[in-house]
Request: fold
Amino acid sequence: MALEWIVVAYAAGAEAMMLLLLTLPGSNPLRHGLLSVTKTLLKPFLSILPFCFLLLLDIYWKYETMPSCKTLNSCSPSENLRHQKSTVKSQRNALLIAAAVAFYWLLYSVTKLVDRVEQLQFQIKKSAKNE
Reply:
């Protein structure tokens, strides 16, 4: 199960790096090349969304099937510690899923916006040459 989380973490990291590089001011030559790379990678990164949904269902299933310690003596200290660790890992993984989805949405929005800005700049240069 750890491999799935590694994939989500690397995808979220790659999305964050592309988002950071696209929004850096004054990097026009880099931005043009990164824009074309990002536009081609948006479709493969879209597969992270259903993947995150399935991992979220896995977290929910683990939460629903987790045994509960109703009384103080019903669980041993090691079981109690194991359940607490599982809860912390589930919370961490839920944050990772939220970050991956948020970074994808931001990357999609920023890529669309930067592409539109470059198109408008091209039209301005084209109209300036015609005058």
